[in-house]
Amino acid sequence: MAAGRIPGQRWYTPYLFAIPALVLFGVFFAWPAITAIQLSFLEYDVVSQPVFVGLENFVTIVGDGRFWTALLNSLLFLVGMFPLLVVIPLLLAVLVNQKLPGIRTFRMLYYLPVVTSMVAVGVAWEYVFHQQGVLNWLLTGAGILDRPIQYLLDPFWALPALVLVEGWKSMGFYMMIYLAGLQTIPANLYEAARVDGAGAWHRLRHITVPLMVPYIAVAVTVEMLDAMQAFTSIYVMTKGGPQDATLTLGYYIWSAAFEHYEMGYASAMGLVLWVLMIAMAILNYRLTRGRTVMP
Amino acid sequence: MSLPMKLRRAGMYILLTAIALVFVGPFLILLSAGLKPAGQAVFSFPPDIIPRPPVLDWAIEAWTAIPFPTYLLNSVIYVGVTVPLYIIVSALCAYPLALMSFRGRNLIFFAILSTMFLPGEVMLIPRFLVVSQLGMADTFAGVILPGVLSAFGIFLLRQTFAGVPREVVDAARTDGCHELRIFWHVMLPAARPTLAILGIFGFISVWNSFIWPLVVLKDSAKYPVALGIAYLAGITGTDVRSLAAGTIISIIPVVVIFMIMQRHILEGMRGAVKG
């Protein structure tokens, strides 16, 4: 990109353009980021003066059973959402990448949950999960269940139910990431494979998936960050219950900070979450780097 | 078209429609519950989806049970202020990043990209404290300002500006155009499709925003509509029908905008992923 020095342009012109963004960056990102690190070494309940407690918050984390429950639940979210957000959307993308009349309408319908608020989605799914709701009718009708389940009140089913809702809401988004990738694959690759007698499964396995590796890598990274931050669905549907079955790190941090006013402790947990997320992003980058296939 | 081809195509449409039902079904169930008359059960085996007859009683009840018009208006204000600010701040910052060389250009770009790696939940607490220290807790400004800076917007516009033919910019510069004039009269019009995409995504994200307003606002009169729905759901004794009707009302604006602009959204995602 050639961006030479422009005659007549004053040295400070570029900075003037960037000032609004830089001020917002300083006030709402840099300053809070530094505050977050400071807070995690303090005991602070908003009302009284903050007290420096050294590493005490981190020591408390290690011995806090609810923290480990929350971490485990967050990891279960991550694992549970993997097939919903990384695998199924790829199949959906292949499906809506066909040249058929009206295919745009189907893409739009699959994308609809992405544009609606998580609150509305949570409310809608409470109707689906109702004891006398559609899901119980389908599953008992098909003989999979003997009797209806109250999914959101059941310590075993509550977490899978929330994973399903979060995954359902975002599938369309991941489908579009993959669709963008699919449209870069030259059609003649498929033609050649078809001439060689390769079936649909073979074409998916040996052409689509290898060429989609960079997009799968993007999907995996975004999925991990999304899953580790799940909050609104939990707030709307279960409040972390029953018996902490859906207590995730995101919800626990929020609850510690804004229900119990343990700002320091909540920040320390936030810092741990932050480090975890960066570590995952780096790991994922390391694992997928170099496997990028250039078409 | 041969018969097997026709059958194959019909099968494909059946599959596509079945999947569409999975994505639209929960909204249809909500719509049905919000329109059913009092005498018709909301839940039953088998599901009884068609309201007989459809009634607006529950929509009216939801509309009055909480200050619905206020919440809708608040959401319009949040969107109406945040989105233009977000677009102009992003464009101003993206312009020198794309077209000028200056000391610290890479530093600024990477600082802004780094914000993508600050998870919302981690920033929630310190940002709330900063906003409180600035006296913006429980204000519209406190809800709006932290949402104005977006790495996504700056990134996308930088790509777009860098793609504008150099000759166009150079010609304007040799004509003695002021940088601000070039920005306003050359670059912004050239970037119109990208601006439209940012506008739609901004609209959707601000309309649906939940966790930040929840933390900043104490006064329920300043709630955006998504918070209003959570509030309605939390009121004990809210009828399942009026909750459904209220929820449907809350998503109508964003769904309508999406239907109208869907082509831009889907094209825009393609551009963003490629960029």
From TrEMBL, chain A:
Keyword field contains Transcription regulation: no
Transmembrane segments: 12-34, 75-96, 108-129, 212-237, 264-285
Membrane-protein topology: Multi-pass membrane protein
Keywords in alphabetical order: Cell membrane, Membrane, Transmembrane, Transmembrane helix, Transport
Localization per Swiss-Prot or TrEMBL: Cell membrane
Keyword Disulfide bond: no
An individual GO BP term: transmembrane transport
One Pfam entry name: BPD_transp_1
Assigned protein family: Belongs to the binding-protein-dependent transport system permease family.
This protein's name: ABC transporter permease subunit
Organism, scientific name: Nonomuraea phyllanthi
From TrEMBL, chain B:
Matches recorded under InterPro entries: MetI-like, MetI-like_sf
Main location: membrane
KW Hydrolase (keyword) present: no
Lineage: Bacteria, Bacillati, Actinomycetota, Actinomycetes, Streptosporangiales
Bilayer-crossing regions: 12-35, 76-95, 107-128, 140-157, 195-215, 242-261
Alphabetized Pfam families for the sequence: BPD_transp_1
Protein name: ABC transporter permease subunit
Species assigned in the record: Nonomuraea phyllanthi
Membrane topology value: Multi-pass membrane protein
Keywords: Cell membrane, Membrane, Transmembrane, Transmembrane helix, Transport
UniProt subcellular location: Cell membrane
